[in-house]
């Protein structure tokens, strides 16, 4: 629900010029009208996928899930593919992860392939830190931030029981991975 609200707020706050840049319809030609266009003024609205927008995703959940699923078909074990959605509801995300791992269909060591596909090779550590994944109260330091950039320099080489607190924040990891996918060109 919160994810939907953030997406709606992000869409409502877009200026006509921004909407025109991402619309399949041609933008109107205002060159000779003398009108001051929003694109000629410093951008006032926050960009999706940034701290200014509270990391509102740039792509719809449906499109993002499609990209995620395509990657999982190529790189993730079949038993883990139920995790290949950008679920940002805390209870739903946690239960899906626990069910996949506890059932034995998805081994803990195989979750890294899901994280790789979720991130779409983007570094989402800033979003994860913004949403508290490095909060001192978790007592893990920056350890969980590597889940937000699994292909990066300090990415995922293995997942152990020490990472349970990170995985219990699967919804944050998932939300930030979704928000890190840039607009398609």
Question: Could you describe the 3D structure shown?
Answer:
- The chain has 185 residues and is mainly alpha-helical.
- It has a domain at 61-179.
- The chain has eight helices and no strands.
- The chain has helices at residues 2-12, 16-21, 61-75, 90-102, 111-119, 125-130, 164-167, 170-179.
- It is globular, with a radius of gyration of 18 Å.
- The relative contact order is 0.15.
Summarize the structure.
The protein has 185 residues and is mainly alpha-helical.
SSE map:
Layout: H1 2-12, H2 16-21, H3 61-75, H4 90-102, H5 111-119, H6 125-130, H7 164-167, H8 170-179
Helix pairs in contact: 3-5, 4-8
Distinctive features:
185 residues; mainly alpha; 8 helices; disordered N terminus
- Total strands: 0
Q: Indicate the proportion of strand residues.
A: under 5%
Identify the quaternary structure here.
single chain
Backbone shape: globular
Helix vs. strand class: mainly alpha
The helix-strand sequence is HHHHHHHH
Biggest sheet layout: none
CA-based gyration radius: 18 Å
| Unreliable spans | 1-43
The N- and C-terminal alpha carbons lie at a distance of: 28 Å
DSSP helix fraction: 40-55%
Counting DSSP H or I runs of 4 or more residues, the number of helices is 8
Overall average pLDDT: 78
């Amino acid at each position: 629900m919160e994810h939907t609200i953030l997406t709606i707020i992000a869409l409502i706050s877009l200026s006509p010029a921004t909407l025109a840049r991402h619309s399949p319809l041609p933008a109107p030609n205002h060159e000779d009208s003398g009108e001051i266009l929003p694109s000629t003024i410093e951008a006032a609205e926050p960009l999706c996928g940034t701290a200014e927008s509270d990391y509102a995703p740039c792509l719809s959940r449906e499109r993002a899930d499609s990209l995620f699923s395509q990657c999982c078909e190529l790189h993730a074990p079949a038993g883990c593919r139920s995790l290949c959605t950008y679920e940002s509801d805390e209870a739903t995300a946690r239960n899906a992860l626990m069910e996949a791992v506890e059932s034995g269909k998805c081994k803990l060591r195989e979750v890294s392939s899901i994280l790789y596909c979720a991130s779409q090779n983007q570094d989402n550590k800033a979003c994860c830190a913004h949403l508290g994944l490095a909060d001192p109260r978790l007592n893990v330091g920056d350890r969980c931030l590597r889940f937000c950039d699994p292909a990066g320099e300090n990415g995922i080489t293995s997942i152990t029981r020490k990472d349970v607190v990170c995985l219990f924040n699967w919804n944050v990891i998932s939300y930030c991975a979704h928000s890190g996918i840039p607009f398609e060109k």
